[in-house]
Design a protein that fits this description.
alpha+beta, 3 domains, eight-stranded mixed β-sheet, 8 strands, rod-shaped
Length: 431
């Protein structure tokens, strides 16, 4: 039995990035670095450098995912198409006098190695997972020391087994902070919940990368639409001016090239934004949120803030697509107009050729008449000379013989010319 060459790879894809097992209490820090295509391999080698310094085996070449234990820190490394994420997990409990978010799990790794991470930091999150216990639903805890009370967002998640609080702001340490309280649950389920929180923030920012592009594109779209309106006005002037049509075609060609260049440079970003936004909505749905303490849930907050931004991006993408389609229709219209003008010119040219051919035929007929007369004259002269030389024997007057031969010779020459015309016509029709 022959195996498909991709069977093993495709089968293992569903297990490619398993959830981490996270107990409580725990602290989780994540850094997301946006990469260019040339920096993806540099991120892999940078990870190998850290593991080599810790005397740990490197991941296989071309790996997209790797987890390892570096002392008390669990490191989770994921490489995606546009970014690489580094997740650091520790299970240190905060003592009574330990301020929250003062120490990060990533602080246990070499500061020099962190400073040299390839790419640009796009997202940094820190999750403080409090010890297991019963959830207090009677009063909102005081988070004013670590979170902005005016921007506080919170919800009950995981079917009521956990509470999440955040302000979705960048703190003094450069991280967005999450505080999680949970009842007793399996480590795997807690790991799924934490990973969904981190992915929501990551995909949210990845989708928002398109918003500045959409804003910059708006004035360009205005110019494109104004130029296209001017071109349509020029096409509407049906004065048959070939120079005007050529100038209009040149303007339309330049506009089409510019629009297609902008479309090609932005289409991938707009498509990615839609995909990331869809992932954000899926992860929010997976949290199974319920409102508590009159706070906005994550889903409500994102729907109020993120949805308008994504609508702006979608609107810009649709508007650019519409301009491209209008330019294409305008090109077809102008092409049709040029083709109609060319057909009219061709008809005029054919009519002129027909007139010239008729004149040439009449001239040819005239020349043929003169040719018959000339041939008859020369052949009759030959007959006259012949009878003049043979007069002593034939006793026929040379002048009389020459005169009698003229109509006969003319008839024979005319018949020969007609037969030649018929043969040429049949040969032409045979082709």
């Amino acid at each position: 039995m022959q195996e498909h060459p991709l069977r093993q790879q495709l089968h293992n894809e569903i297990h490619a990035r398993p959830f981490e097992r996270i107990g409580a209490p725990a602290q989780v820090s994540q850094l997301v670095m946006q990469l260019d295509a040339s920096e993806s391999e540099a991120a892999y080698h940078h990870l190998c450098e850290l593991l080599g310094n810790e005397h740990l085996p490197p991941p296989a070449a071309g790996s997209m995912f790797h987890t390892t234990q570096i002392g008390p820190v669990r490191l989770r490394w994921e490489r995606h198409g546009e970014f690489v994420s580094y997740t650091f997990i520790t299970h240190d409990a905060l003592g009574p006098g330990d301020p929250m978010f003062q120490r990060l799990p990533s602080d246990r790794v070499s500061a020099d190695w962190l400073a040299r991470l390839p790419g640009r930091r796009l997202c940094a999150n820190h999750v403080a997972l409090m010890p297991e216990g019963e959830l207090d639903c009677s009063a909102l805890p005081d988070f004013s020391a670590v979170l902005d009370a005016d921007a506080l967002v919170g919800a009950e998640v995981a079917d009521g087994n956990a509470q999440v609080f955040t302000d979705l702001r960048i703190g003094p340490d450069g991280h967005t902070r999450f505080i999680v309280f949970s009842r007793s649950m399996t480590e795997r389920r807690r790991g799924r919940m934490i990973q969904r929180l981190l992915e929501i923030e990551t995909y949210r920012l990845m989708s928002l990368l398109t918003l500045p592009i959409a804003r910059e594109l708006t004035p360009q779209l205005n110019r494109f639409e104004n130029d296209l309106a001017g071109i349509m006005d020029a096409i509407g002037i049906a004065d048959g001016d070939g120079a005007r049509d050529a100038q209009t075609l040149e303007r339309l060609t330049q506009l089409a090239a510019t629009v297609e260049r902008v479309y090609a440079s932005t289409h991938g970003r707009f498509t990615a934004a839609a995909a990331y936004y869809d992932l954000v909505n899926r992860r929010v749905t997976d949290l199974h949120e319920r409102q508590i303490f009159g706070l906005q849930t994550l889903g409500q907050f994102l729907d109020r803030r993120l949805a308008p931004a994504m609508q702006t991006c979608a609107w810009a993408a649709r508007r650019l697509q519409a301009v491209s389609e209008r330019v294409s229709r305008c090109s077809n219209l102008l092409r049709t107009r040029v083709e109609v003008a060319m057909q009219q010119q061709n008809r005029t040219l054919l009519a002129s050729m027909n007139r010239r051919q008729y004149l040439q035929l009449r001239l040819q007929q005239t020349v043929e008449g003169l040719s018959v007369a000339a041939i008859t004259y020369y052949m009759a002269s030959l007959v006259g000379h012949l009878f003049e030389a043979a007069e002593p024997w034939l006793h026929v007057n040379a002048g009389l013989a020459e005169g009698v031969s003229i109509p006969l010779i003319a008839l024979v020459v005319w018949i020969a010319l007609q037969r030649m015309h018929h043969r040429l016509e049949r040969a032409s029709e045979g082709r």
